[in-house]
From TrEMBL:
The protein's name: Flagellar brake protein
Pfam families referenced in this protein's UniProt entry, alphabetically: PilZ, PilZNR
Organism, as annotated: Corallincola holothuriorum
Protein's UniProt keywords contain rRNA-binding: no
Residue ranges of domain Type III secretion system flagellar brake protein YcgR PilZN in the record: 41-115
């Protein structure tokens, strides 16, 4: 799960003992999210193996990443590390670090410097998660005279979701041009509640070509209490999240 929270909620911890206490909340096998520079490869997710307080943090490198990330996994390369502290803490943490060791045998492991400061974000604010949730985009079109109305519906996947909006990936070939709709309905079907789809009014704020067969839409939601409650009560379960 990937979390991004607005800058207003950021709290920077610099006290050495508080940094240690914060990182001690992480547990072996927790996923850490590594970002190697802006515009680089997608973030790399690694399982935490352990750490030596004030010295280093060690994670397992996924087998496929040993080759595909070999240019990033080099000594001295900088990175941003993010993680979710689950349970009562309800926080996302982030810190800058530097790679100080890589080994390949008997298991591929990555060592990064133990941080001197950590940024903390509350998950009770506007959390944004990476998802693969099925959704349907619904909107109304009119004829050239502006009279006859018809309803269009396109099935896609929400790849990024918050209480304020989403990014929706839709099958959309090059020959279809741009989506003309602006005011839309988004029907979201969470796997954990298949008989209770969520219908949300939204406004298309952006659209970009994802590839030759898909587009991604940036959609802003109006405030909907049910979605807010889903986030606050952790109603989106692990099975719903990539």
């Amino acid at each position: 799960m990937e979390a991004n929270v607005s800058e207003q909620t950021k709290d920077t911890v610099t006290d050495r003992q508080l940094v240690i206490d914060t990182l001690n909340r992480l547990r072996p096998a927790d996923l850490l999210d590594f970002q190697f520079g802006i515009g680089s490869k997608p973030r790399l997710k690694c399982k935490l193996i352990g750490y030596e307080e004030t010295k280093y943090i060690v994670v397992a490198i996924p087998e496929l990443a040993r080759v595909s990330y070999k240019d990033q996994l080099t000594l001295g390369n900088g990175c941003i590390v993010r993680a979710i502290i689950e349970g009562d803490a309800g926080q996302c943490i982030a810190f800058k670090s530097t790679i100080n060791g890589v080994i390949n045998h008997p298991q591929a492991l990555l060592f990064v410097d133990y941080p001197k400061q950590v940024q903390m974000f509350s998950l009770r604010n506007q959390i944004r998660i990476t998802t693969h949730v099925p959704a349907t985009l619904i909107y109304t079109t009119t004829d050239a005279a502006g009279k006859d109305e018809s309803t269009e519906a396109f099935h896609g996947t929400i790849i990024d979701l918050s209480v304020g909006g989403c990014r929706l990936k839709l099958p959309w070939h090059l020959g279809q041009g741009r989506l003309s709709a602006q005011e839309v309905l988004v029907k979201i079907l969470f796997p954990s509640r298949p008989d209770e789809p969520l219908l949300i009014e939204g406004e298309v704020k952006s659209q970009n070509r994802h590839d030759g067969k898909h587009i991604t839409l940036g959609i802003k939601f109006g405030e909907i209490q049910e979605l807010i409650e889903l986030f606050n009560q952790l109603g989106i379960e692990e099975n719903d999240i990539s």
